[in-house]
Amino acid sequence: DGKLVPDAIDTVFAQHGEAPVPYLLGFNAFEFPGTTVAKPGGRAADLARSPAAEASVERAYDSPEAFDTHFISDWIFVEPARLLARLHSQTGVQTYLYRFAVLADAARSQYSDAPHASERQYVFKTLAASPWATGAMDAAAAETISAYWVAFAKGGDPNGEARVPWHAYSASDDRLLE
Fold first, then answer.
1. What are 128-166's pLDDT values in tens digits?
2. 8 A C-beta contact, residue 84 and residue 14
3. CA distances from 72 to 43, 53, 57, 149 (A)
4. DSSP letters along 73-129, please?
5. What global pTM score does this model have?
6. Is the C or the N end of the chain the one with fewer CB within 10 Å?
7. How far apart, in Å, are the Cα atoms of 91 and each of 9, 51, 115, 168?
């Protein structure tokens, strides 16, 4: 529409300046796997801005290994999605939050959980474009996941048919669909 929003997205949502329409968002179970880890002096330090604050962030995890494995994913994708879901749900408009955790059997030798963007082949039922061989369970998951998204695109509510109910997000119960 030619309009620019010069403010940060979290600022816009905190002021309830986003469009008052149903909102579906989420994240993958393991957004940044492998060698993408936070180390002292790295991104955690940039976020924390002090050694004491960095140590506080690290203590939020069960172990230093868990911090190294999950911090970047949590910082860049998980917590921003949860924040936007929380803020948008406060407007009273339906908000649906998901955590995508489907992992093709053929990907298990490389990943422990669903990496960044791996939901696309399921949402759009394009499993043939997947970088990993997929099977019957993946096809069934793609049918279900795509049906949620199609229903949402058609009417603003992903629910319907015989699918497991996807409850609207609210900060008070902090539920999402996995």
1. 999 888 999 999 999 999 999 999 999 999 999 999 999
2. no
3. 8, 16, 12, 27
4. HIIIIIHHHHHHHHHHHTTTS-EEEEEE----GGGTTT-SSPBTTTTHHHHTT-GGG
5. 0.87
6. N
7. 15, 37, 31, 13
